[in-house]
Amino acid sequence: MTVQQPIAVIGGGSFGTAIANLLAENGQAVHLWMRDPEQAEAIRSNRENPRYLKGVRILDGVQPTSDLPATLAACELVFVALPSSALRQALQPVCEALTGKMLVSTTKGIEAQSFKLMSQILEEIAPDARIGVLSGPNLAREVAEHALTASVIASEDEALCRKVQETLHGRTFRVYASRDRFGVELGGALKNVYAIMSGMAAALGMGENTKSMLITRALAEMTRFAVNLGANPMTFLGLAGVGDLIVTCSSPKSRNYQVGHALGEGLSLENAVGRIGEVAEGVNTIKVLKAKADELQVYMPLVTGLHAILFEGRTLEQVIEALMSGEPKTDVDFISASGF
Ligand SMILES: NC(=O)c1ccc[n+]([C@@H]2O[C@H](COP(=O)([O-])OP(=O)(O)OC[C@H]3O[C@@H](n4cnc5c(N)ncnc54)[C@H](O)[C@@H]3O)[C@@H](O)[C@H]2O)c1
Ligand SMILES: O=P(O)(O)OC[C@H](O)CO
Which positions are catalytic residues (predicted)? Predict the structure, then answer.
């Protein structure tokens, strides 16, 4: 009889907890690592993670732990669900234990100084690991509450994709495979910025035409940027592109949308972020994205406008005026520019 190896989930926030529960539901033994031993003990006793997923029962197959070396020693497949600001800092000290592992990043952010995506950081600190990215329209609470959901595992390592599909694909969670790790990961990071804008638009009572214009032009803008970096624009028509953009830009359950909504209500950025109390990756992404767009000379009026509101003291009215009076451009320009 073969003994099944446990699977590690690194990060005890909303998404780590939701993924751990999905794996356990499929009969996998899961080690859910979090840095705080008291939180691990409380979850072990109460079978609930009240700070991040209140009311969701954590299945018996999930073993909360704060022992990272032991977790990595026991598991070959490792899902990483840390905020982008913490990933390098948390995993660099244990980089030797990552050798040969299958590391799947679920983190949707970009490193500030280097403009590296999280799987690129994993590759850097663990060059002998096998790397993948899981991304798509996956609000953690909906995943945990069994809303019918689809996601994408992206890697050039087909065996890794199959392994993730086998372990994660279930009754309410479909997992599609892609070979475009870069495009899938970039889509997940970029959409957070536009979700902040959509939250603002909702708070200001803007119309449905406006919301649709925002989402569609956001797709054009993020794809134009991605194509400039060499990504395949077709990936942006999939779950990890337009799929994730739609859910994050239209759901009040998205933390990025919530930050935008709070800003639209008149809160300062600091108070808006504080009110949410969870990770909203778009706040950091907007800074690095604006700098990179300037460096590459990519036309990104929405990013420029949001950056001006958040960090350059411009009012929303000034930015809307500038956006609406800009010269009209060609629709779907990013496809023809890419040569596809
Ligand atoms: N929540 C979602 O719906 C969702 C869905 C898909 C992807 N993601 C992505 O997953 C990543 C994590 O998001 P989340 O929603 O789970 O965040 P969260 O705010 O719910 O939880 C963050 C967790 O990380 C822990 N943490 C913070 N700093 C740490 C450090 N230095 N070392 C160890 N642990 C640390 C916190 O204690 C907490 O447990 C983000 O990049 C997010 O974009 C989230
Ligand atoms: O809550 P958000 O804004 O971090 O979005 C969560 C997921 O990325 C949606 O797919």
Answer: 191
